[in-house]
Amino acid sequence: MIRLTTAGESHGPRLIAILEGLPAGLPLSAAAIRADLARRQIPLGAGGRMSIETDVATIESGVMAGVTTGAPVALSIENRDHAAWAGKSVPALSIPRPGHADLAAAVKYGYGDCRPALERASARETAARTAAGACCRALLAEFGIAVSSRVLEIGGVAGDASSPAVAEAIARARREGETLGGVVEVRAAGVPPGLGSHVSASRRLDAALAAAVVSVQSVKGVEFGDGFALAAMPGTKAQDPIVAGPDGLLSRPSCRSGGIEGGISNGSPIVLRAALKPIPTTLSPQDSVDLSAGVPAKTRYERSDTCAVPRAAVVLEAAVALVLADALSEKLGGDSLGEMKRRFAALPRLEARNPAFSGAPAVFWPE
Ligand code: EPS
Predict the structure, then answer these.
(1) What is the C-alpha to C-alpha distance for residues 134 and 32, in angstroms, rounded to an integer?
(2) What does pTM read for this prediction?
(3) Which residues line ligand 1 (CB under 6 A)?
């Protein structure tokens, strides 16, 4: 079982990730983690903070001589901006931003200042998740599984992170004191059939992926394969036909189900999309209430990003990689990489003529 705990505040000294359950024997380098952290620091849509941080993860434990030991892997990432906050008196934040955790968390935890909510709810935390996701990606790569992503649209404008129209939409939003959300697609190629299970709600792979995706800050929607469009299709057009190929193996020419049927990976690529709302910290003031006086007040602006979608794409990859690594280790036993590889090699293939099927009738419920 692979489990991640992160800790750390946005402007605290550092972020921590503790990743439990990686098998022993997995080569893991700070450089591989650094590569994903660098991908996440894409400047498009980012505010001033990104030019302060250069995220580097230090491997604190669980790796000896460049190889995992099976013990928890602890990672730390310095917050360079912490130096600007250490020892300084910080004005109270008593006007919660609609859409942020400010109000709900302050009431829930009895805070007298929304700042503790801001600090922990901040998407700065996603640097730690990305670092842990890189470790999971390294495990998946050993089995030929690759997780990738692309931005499909930002602020209603179709295009990926390199699209001039998208860049222009973000620049316009910045000029207008607005923020933008968008849609990201994540794909996992090379996923073997048989991850997850239909037998219990808690073991369904799509349920675990949906939970992980929605746990990423700002995500408000998730769909698999053709997702919401399936709701309007006739049943015969909404499935992925099962075809016997010339090699004697089964194939699925379409991927409307997103590679998961009955909560189990079916051997097709896993395809999901996440919808992110615009960041709630806006240059233009929004209607709120000053909780210290109980009177209407406009939100105040503190430095923030215009659009987090390009960065979120890498974070969503990490979230998906973590769930797939967990499901793979459940399927293959998770103690050592060598053991997992032997079991992986013995997984059944999707044969068109399946020897388990004799065609004989059976009495399933004897009287
Ligand atoms: C964030 C606000 C901004 C972002 C931050 C997430 O930080 P600050 O308030 O310091 O300007 O830059 O994201 C990161 C620092 C990061 O590494 O992704 C927020 O409130 O969610």
Answers:
(1) 7
(2) 0.97
(3) 10, 47, 49-50, 53, 81, 122-124, 126-127, 281, 303-305, 311
